[in-house]
Amino acid sequence: MTDRARRRPVWAALAELFVDNEVRPDVAAAALACVRSGYADDELQRIWTHEVAPVLAPNLLSVAGEWVGFDLDWLAERIEQRRPTPLDRVPAWLARAEWQQVRRLTAWLRGWPTDRHDALAQAVAARIGAAVELTRPTPPLSPQEAEAARSVARDAVIALHVRGEDPPLAAMLAKLEPADP
Q1: Which residues of 133-142 are buried (b: 16+ CB within 10 A; e: fewer)?
Q2: Can you say how many angstroms the Cα of residue 16 is from the centroid of all Cα atoms in its chain?
Q3: Alpha-carbon span 11 to 2, nearest angstrom
Q4: Which one-letter DSSP state was computed for residue 61?
Q5: Which residues contact 164 (CB under 8 A, 6 or more apart)?
Q6: Which residues contact 23 (CB under 8 A, 6 or more apart)?
Q7: How far apart, in whole angstroms, are the C-alpha atoms of residue 54 and residue 14?
Q8: What is the pLDDT of residues 86-140, one digit of tens each?
Q9: What is the CA radius of gyration of the chain?
């Protein structure tokens, strides 16, 4: 692997989707890392399917999985030691909903000016966090950006809603609506 330094931030951000705690707000940071990497969608898919997911998906099946985070040097070493196989698609499937949202948010962020990517990703994470009752700071946004971030966060909350585990979807979505003046 010749571009380890370029891949490491992507590995680190995607690894957060495999910790054993609430990761839904982290899809925005993962999308931001994907955008910043400059990789095309097909290479990002390869990184997910054949590098990160096969190494970290077992954590999602563990009774006492890692919940603080993964050591990036350990992760890089594990990724570089393995060879991709057709069976890599199985572990990638375990967190497919999160990956689909990362891909969606990556495409969405690419449609905005580069200097707004950080603020927009933070806003989406804050709004998803509000729906799952995690507090995150929201950066200042234009009204257009705020509405776009709310809309994309709403779609992500719907896609990542866990039936039987989460509060009713309507209650979560209500937390995303702007407050009445």
Answers
A1: eeeeebeebe
A2: 8
A3: 15
A4: H
A5: none
A6: 16, 17, 98
A7: 12
A8: 877 777 788 888 999 999 999 999 999 999 999 999 999 999 999 988 888 788 8
A9: 16
